[in-house]
Amino acid sequence: MSARRGVGVRIGPFGVLVRRRAVVWTAIVTITLLAVTVLAVLTGTLDLPASRVWAALTGRGSSVDHLVVVDRRLVRAVTAILVGFVLGLSGALTQSVTRNPIATPDLLGVTAGASAAAVLLITQPWLVTSVTGTASATLVAPAAVVGGLLTTAMIVALAWRGGFDGMRLILVGLGVNAIALAIVSWALMRADLHSAAVASRWLTGSLAGVRVEDVWMLLAVVAVATACSTVLSQDLSALRLGRDVAASLGTRTARSEAYAIALAVVAVSAATAVAGPIGFVAFVAPQAALRVFGTAGPTPLTSGMVGALVVLVADQTAQRLPVELPVGVLTAVIGAPALMFLLVRYVRRSSV
User: Fold this and answer.
1) Cα separation of 64 and 91, whole Å?
2) What pLDDT is attached to residue 81?
């Protein structure tokens, strides 16, 4: 490998090739994330001087300043980063397993399944309170995770044939996605006006109501997902070459595919539970990352970094528009044209 493309680093018996392009772009994305986060904390609807912001961050400010700076601005910015990271990582996992650039949790029905479970609890609280006696509002997040897992179990049961075929998985996912969206429509029609408004806002994907507890939950998910995806990195690289090639290289294809899909489902369900279904990030981030970082395929960690930047910038932009919009609206505006472009490109390549 030429020095222009990478530098070998050896620590004891371990060695790794560090690609200069990856290092440069990792630094650029990290610095940009920090800069936008600082901007998010310093600025907002309420104009606060930097001294009061710093005092609130160090615990010496008033309770009002702490509420505005830490509980609202900082928590929302950090949540945006974590949600975006999880969505980008999940998209990279599903695209690597299926070897298809349009195979994301959004299109495979996982996000819709998580949304259907959450909307049922928001609009039909009697389904839970009559059985458990627990307030349904406290169970929205767990319900979204369970809904995503149940949807995936249905998809796997219908699409698994000793492994995943990319096109079959997408077709089954689209069918399950349609069923989940029908359940959402039924729940909204049966709901009262207030519950329907709350559910409709949640369905657009919003970071307006995030809490400190959400940050800690997402931090745990990010830590586990990062560790697991690092362990799976070699198998994912092999799977991008095709199942037969991966098997010849010693990869247990079925097991690796199952682990990757399960990891993607849990991660994206957790993000959906916190912020609602923020569309297209899981699709855009991996495709942008492989082009920016120059990798052979969508790698989970670089995709997560790009996803974090996309959601953070989109959320900050949405807050500063004349009329504040949920972040999901802005990501849809960005992602829909990109999806159409790649879909047309994929169809053209398949027909050649």
Assistant:
1) 39
2) 95
DSSP string, 195-232: HHHHHHHHHT---TT--HHHHHHHHHHHHHHHHHHHHT
Asked if residue 132 has pLDDT above 80, the reply is no
Please list, in sequence order, all residues whose beta carbon lies within 8 angstroms of the beta carbon of residue 84, skipping any fewer than 6 positions away: 281, 285, 304, 307, 308, 309, 310, 311, 312
Q: Are the C-beta atoms of 240 and 290 separated by less than 8 Å? A: no
Q: State pLDDT tens for residues 332-351.
A: 887 777 777 766 766 666 65
| Two structure tokens written together for 296 | 């052979």
Domains and CATH numbers, the chain: 11-351 (1.10.3470.10)
Distance CA 225, CA 267 (A): 7
- Residue in this structure with the two tokens 């990062």, named with its chain if needed: 226
Whether the predicted pLDDT of 33 surpasses 80:
yes
Total count of residues recorded for the chain = 352
From the list 303, 289, 312, 305, the residue with the least C-alpha distance to 36 is 312
Tell me the three state secondary structure of residue 275: helix
Q: CA nearest 271: which of 150, 144, 181?
A: 144
